[in-house]
Amino acid sequence: MALSTPHDPALSDKSTVPGTRECPGRVILQAGVGRTLPKDWLKLLVAEALGTFFLVFPGAGAPILDKVTNGSVGLLGIAIANGLGLAIGITATMNISGGALNPAVTVALWAAKKLKGALVIPYIVAELVGALIAALLLKAIFPAAAAAATHLGAPALSQISAGQGVLLEGFMTFLLVTAVFLTAVDERAPKVGGFGIGVIVMVDVLMGGPLTGAAMNPARALGPALVAGFLTNQWIWWVGPILGGLLAAALYRGVLATPAPTVAQKVAAAVTPGARRGGGGKRR
Known about the structure:
Number of helices: 10
CATH class: Mainly Alpha
Helix content: 55-70%
């Protein structure tokens, strides 16, 4: 969502992305300040691409394998593949890039002023690249018939309309991004890495997978779809997740976030330790 906090011009002590705070697994990225990329931008983008690969390779591969094995994987197996893939991807990359691994999460972090604006587009591109590489590898591994039948694991609508698909993807992504903010971004968050985020993805796939594929991630949807040549209704997995992520960002920033300290509180926090040391000296 790392035992040390990197120091970099892209870093700040006030803003966080998945896996951030002064404890293992927290990387602090400068939020909404500056228009230039950090010096180690390539490392950040490689981490985002790699982490997205961690999600898309098993997440899209599971439905293909289910087809190859005549249903032995099942909905539960597909949910586990997506949830654990994301949980591991976030935990593996959180101390490098923050582990957004999802354009909807990236946009939500920026909207909540938790991600530097200059990193938004590069992060999204890196996430798409990671998804494309995963899809290309899946195409090379699986039988052509199974890959074609499942569109390489790309999401698709079933039994619901496009509008209902947007609503469902949006709400599932709202739950996902809320979990990102409350289990990884917030300074009060537990030290669970990407576990909590992976669990909500499992739950969402169990509920929405048969209806929309439960991508909740434009990169997870578009990577396999591009390689498979299956772009039907792809806008659904951009509009729904991004709107759901923005709603979660608004809820977090407006209601759930830790209030920013006032100037007086900052001054008091800086002065009090010294005053205590001085007072102790006088008593001795």
